[in-house]
Task: inverse folding
């Protein structure tokens, strides 16, 4: 319903503005089942949907019990807390733009576990003046939940909310609260599996989901669509924004559930093709769990899932532990696969640890030749390889001269 239609239904007069608001509220509730808050001035609109945790979102359940230790440590969370699913509060905003100072968060999406259900609550501003009242709902949930979960909330959602609190003479230091940004975790795990790690790209490449453009709305159109709603009061304009926001909340929760399941030790015998287990091993390595990383990579190696990346990582881990014969095995395989980092490490190992200078020279020459014929190369790598070859040739020649002059 727009203002032209309302003109024909409501007579002009002193109460025209209030009648218009009342009519818009009725049509909003008809288009999006929900309820208005009890605020006398500038109420907010509130919707709630529930999803059984065993229900599947893009073939993945929402089921999750606790965050694995490696994720807790990576996020810098208090290790002794436990961090079960009841602690989580997924947060996603729809705003009027990207500038923090003048940005209005006109729709706040919240997701949390409640028993055997995952609840999505949405808090909408039918009028910008209702912003202050919307914070009451948000603060209530923040008091109930210990951990904020976002997708890119570190650089967007939390700073935006903090600035809006300040505009309204409130102070809530959200960035000082426990927070897990799924975007940064996803980058660690899927940067080699997807062209980018924005949420919709991960939905497509990792979850196999394509958003229905007839139901959803591109993020770039959301600000102007809200402004159009403010101008003509048509709730059909924002229905798709609600669906977009709900999808963001659900997929953030699903991705976190998938991550929590995929990084648990031991990794399952039946591998999930969506998971980059080399990246999982690196996550463990980054947190000091080298033994778990070796277990993951060794299991993949023994299952004949050999890649240059895998054997290189195994070689580096065994190098840290001083297990040089295992290093030789793995770097040697990587060198045969023409993997430059493995070829370099293999040459270094043969020279510095095993003192096999002819073999080290042969590998260094192979590396140099590969780099020189590679169409994309770094000149610094070529210069370093040339220097290594020159040094090894000199070392071998010097040793040969000493052998010739040894007394009989």
Result:
């Amino acid at each position: 319903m727009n203002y032209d239609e309302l003109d024909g239904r409501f007579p002009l007069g002193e109460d025209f503005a209030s009648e218009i608001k009342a009519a818009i509220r009725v049509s909003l509730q008809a288009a999006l089942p929900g309820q208005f808050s009890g605020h006398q001035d500038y109420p907010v609109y509130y919707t709630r949907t529930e999803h059984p945790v065993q229900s599947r979102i893009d073939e993945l359940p929402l089921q999750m019990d606790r965050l694995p230790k490696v994720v807790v440590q990576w996020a810098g969370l208090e290790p002794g807390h436990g961090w079960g699913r009841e602690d989580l509060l997924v947060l996603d905003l729809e705003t009027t733009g990207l500038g923090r100072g003048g940005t209005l968060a006109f729709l706040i999406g919240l997701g949390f576990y409640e028993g055997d259900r995952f609840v999505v609550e949405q808090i909408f501003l039918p009028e910008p003046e209702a912003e202050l009242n919307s914070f009451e709902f948000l603060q209530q949930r923040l008091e109930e939940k210990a951990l904020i979960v976002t997708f890119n909330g570190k650089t967007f959602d939390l700073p935006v909310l903090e600035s809006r609190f300040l505009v309204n003479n409130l102070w809530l230091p959200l960035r000082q609260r426990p927070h897990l940004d799924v975007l940064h975790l996803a980058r660690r795990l899927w940067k080699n599996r997807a062209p980018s790690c924005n949420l919709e790209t991960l939905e497509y490449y990792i979850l196999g989901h394509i958003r229905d453009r007839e139901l959803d709305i591109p993020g770039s159109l959301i600000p102007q669509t809200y402004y159009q709603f403010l101008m003509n009061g048509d709730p059909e304009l924002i229905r798709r924004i609600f669906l977009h926001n709900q999808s963001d909340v659900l997929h953030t929760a699903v991705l976190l559930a998938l991550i929590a399941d995929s990084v648990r030790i031991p990794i399952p015998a039946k591998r999930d093709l969506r998971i980059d287990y080399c990246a999982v091993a690196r996550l463990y390595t980054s947190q000091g769990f080298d033994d778990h990383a070796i277990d993951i990579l060794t299991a993949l190696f023994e299952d004949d899932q050999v890649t240059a990346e895998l054997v290189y990582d195994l070689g580096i881990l065994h190098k840290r532990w001083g297990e040089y014969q295992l290093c030789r095995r793995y770097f040697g395989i990587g060198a045969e696969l023409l993997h430059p980092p493995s070829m370099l490490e293999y040459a270094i190992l043969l020279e510095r640890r095993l003192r096999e200078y002819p073999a080290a020279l042969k590998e260094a020459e192979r590396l140099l030749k590969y780099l020189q014929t590679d169409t994309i190369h770094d000149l610094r790598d070529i210069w370093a390889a040339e220097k290594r070859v020159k040094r090894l040739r000199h070392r071998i020649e010097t040793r040969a001269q000493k052998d010739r002059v040894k007394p009989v």
Q: What stands out?
A: Residues 38-262 form a domain with the Nucleotidyltransferase; domain 5 fold (CATH 3.30.420.10). The CA atoms of residues 36 and 45 lie 4 Å apart.
